[in-house]
Design a protein that fits this description.
heterodimer, A: alpha/beta, five-stranded parallel beta sheet, 19 strands, globular, B: 203 residues, alpha/beta, binds iron/sulfur cluster
Chain lengths: 461, 203
């Protein structure tokens, strides 16, 4: 009998072409996703006069610089970034999701929607939140520009195998508590280096109970806890999501694929280098108060009193006083969107809070893709947002990173469904509080950071 | 890219944890082609006050010719933007010494000849004390994996493959192309076993 294997072991060995003496593996890449930020890598390719090794496995998506108010004039540098990607995609004969494509959106939303993301694949993208795709039981990780150029030229990547880590969340999440809260909660407890050097497999009944959207949110945020990989073993929920999508296997291929995917699990006896456990019932709606995702706490908590240099600086930047309650902190604006929380389920969760209510502060709602936008409009969610006074805009990375010009002004406080509360992430001097879309909606309605749970009482969610 | 084994240069202390990639280079500068140089964008908003004037007290503004940074925990966490490394390299930085690094950042650094030297928290404290008043010269040796400053010698951690890469300044693409046959074999077997990996989308 062979030694018990983890899901990581299985995915790794099926992609390993060879291993060097120093322990680094050369891995085959099944899907390579590129975006406007990949211009450095294409420039390297041009400098070598090289071509893309596998154009049919390389997909280009316009998202980071995508204007969310389509039709308006775009600044020349932003237009230039999109054009460079489009030119490169054409020159190398890549499938391109540009602004006019009906399935355009954020790369980590488009991949799964199009069925490009499948269990058992290795997926690379020059973006750290590539871990999102691990929700399908794929080996997915972000890479830098030098590595992007390497994948473009060889369809392979050199990588050292990380250690396996398991985060088990058992039980049932309370009402108003979501995958975002699970993630912020574990990162707050283990720290931003808590999963450094590890590939996380999420397990347990609470994880199984999540939709694919929720699992993607969870895997997406793995990088904020230091892990490059986040994974969930595929199951019926995964298959349901994939079936019928444009790039998903069809006919006999589907049956063969499903048979193979069924085996993508960790053996019961498999050992994990790190194994941590959380009880879903103990997780409350969680918000960040500082400038690192680990600086997060339940909305019912107070800001820390026992200060280190790091927490002092964070509170100072955020304009907050030690020991004060987090709830009640007034916000200036809100943002709902991003590859973390810009999917249909996220918009539904926000709409459930906003329905029939008015936002006290301005805000933007940007769906993760044009398909999410269409679906939301069919469900009338856009009306709920507009009636609440929020702006319903087109899809893109938008205020998650501000590259397209959607910025938070210096000193302004934004309740945001995104993934990074770093200094200046949403704009120079911007103060970002990360939270779930439902919690952002609660902040919009009350004008302050608030517990969403009372606002959901008596509502169908 | 040129390899290197030894470097001696001026080190300054940046005693902050979590200097993430968004601080290293704000997103708004990332559309610039590399040929224009990224050095002036390094820590752009951190080094300047609200009016855009350089903060006189900031170590990197005060000291000229810095090539070694001693920074706090979790340096380079965050995004995969290699521009964060370009900003450091183009500003003349050859090594960053910290108790811990963001994974993707560290890999990107090595791909550009920049050393991410990981030291223990205790050794980091010693370095911090040594640099707290003024910058000083540090010597870094990739052969012995040691940092030397005055009479102190401090070891640092670096994986074997990264050390080799830094020393030789290797380009991975050239190395990988030597394995073209293995890659082609893998591809053929995959095509046979899992044809759906090579997709034909709906018409
Ligand atoms: S939404 Fe934000 S985190 Fe996601 S890909 Fe875009 S910039 Fe990156």
């Amino acid at each position: 009998m062979s030694a018990p294997q983890t899901l990581l072991d299985r995915l790794w060995s099926s992609h390993e072409i060879l291993q060097r003496d120093d322990g680094t593996s050369l891995l085959w890449v099944d899907r390579h996703l590129v975006h406007e930020g990949s211009h450095h890598a294409f420039a390297k390719l041009a400098a070598r006069k090289a071509h893309v090794a596998e154009p049919s496995l390389t997909f280009a998506v316009v998202d980071h610089y995508a204007p969310t108010r389509r039709g308006r004039d775009v600044a020349p540098d932003i237009a230039g970034m999109m054009k460079t990607l489009e030119d490169n995609a054409r020159a190398h004969d890549l499938t391109l999701y540009d602004l006019d494509h009906p399935a355009q959106g954020i790369v980590h939303v488009v991949g799964p929607e199009q069925g490009l993301t499948l269990p058992g694949l290795l997926i690379n993208c020059g973006d750290s939140h590539t871990s999102t795709h691990g929700a399908f039981g794929a080996l997915a990780f972000g890479i830098g520009a030098t590595e992007v150029a390497h994948v473009l030229s060889t369809q392979t990547v050199w990588q050292r195998k990380p250690d396996a880590m398991r985060i088990t969340v058992d039980g049932t999440l309370g009402p108003g508590v979501s995958a975002k809260d699970i993630a912020l909660n574990w990162i707050a407890r283990l720290g931003t280096s808590g999963a450094q050097g590890h590939a996380i497999e999420y397990a347990g009944s609470a994880v199984r109970g999540l939709s694919m959207e929720g699992r993607m949110t969870l895997c997406n945020l793995s990088i904020e806890g230091g892990a490059r990989f986040g994974m969930v073993a595929p199951d019926a929920v995964t298959l349901d999501y994939i079936k019928g999508r444009p790039f998903a296997p069809k006919g006999p291929d589907w049956d063969r694929a499903v048979q193979l995917w069924d085996g993508l699990t960790s053996d019961t006896a498999a050992g994990f280098h790190k194994d941590v456990y959380f009880d879903a019932a103990e997780i409350a709606p969680t918000v960040t108060w500082g400038t690192s995702p680990e600086q997060a706490a339940p909305v019912t908590a107070n800001l820390p009193n026992d200060l280190t240099q790091t927490t002092t600086e964070a509170l100072e930047y955020m304009g907050l006083s030690p020991g004060a309650p987090i709830a009640g902190t007034p916000v200036d604006q809100v943002f709902i969107g991003s590859c973390t929380n810009g999917r249909i389920e996220d918009l539904r969760a926000a709409a459930a809070v906003l329905s029939g209510r008015r936002a006290r502060v301005p805000g933007i709602v940007s769906p993760g893709s044009a398909l999410v936008k269409m679906q939301a409009e069919q469900e009338g969610l856009d009306q709920i947002f507009s009636n609440a006074g929020l702006e319903w805009v087109a899809s893109g990375c938008s205020m998650c990173v501000g590259m397209n010009g959607d910025l938070v002004a210096a000193g302004k406080r934004c309740a945001s469904s995104t993934n990074r509360n770093f200094r200046g992430r949403q704009g120079r001097g911007a103060r970002t509080h990360l939270m779930s879309p439902a919690m952002v909606a609660a902040a919009a309605v009350t004008g302050a950071i608030s517990d969403v749970r009372p606002l959901l009482e008596g509502r169908a969610v | 890219m040129a390899g290197w084994t030894k470097h001696t240069g001026t080190a300054v202390l940046l005693a902050r944890d979590n200097i993430d990639t968004d601080q290293l280079i704000p997103a708004r500068f990332m559309s610039v082609p590399r040929s224009e140089g990224y050095g002036e964008y390094l820590l752009y908003d951190v080094r300047r006050d609200a009016t855009g004037q350089p903060e006189r007290d900031f170590p990197l503004n005060r000291v000229k010719g810095v090539s070694v940074l001693v920074a706090g925990q979790n340096f380079g966490s965050g995004s995969s933007r290699e521009a964060a490394v370009y900003a450091l390299v183009d500003a003349g930085i050859r090594a960053v010494i910290a108790p811990g690094f963001g994974d993707i950042f560290a890999g990107n650094a090595v791909n550009n000849g920049l050393l991410p030297a990981q030291v223990t928290p205790d050794d980091w404290q010693a370095l911090r004390n040594a640099l707290s008043d003024a910058p000083r010269d540090l010597s870094i040796d990739l052969a012995t994996l040691c940092i030397q400053g005055g009479d102190n010698t401090i070891p640092f951690q670096l994986s074997e493959n990264w050390r080799t890469k830094l020393i030789h300044g290797w380009d991975d693409i050239d190395l990988t192309l030597h394995h073209a046959d293995d890659i082609a074999r893998h591809r053929r077997a995959l095509h046979e076993r899992q044809p759906w990996v090579f997709p034909a989308p709906d018409a």
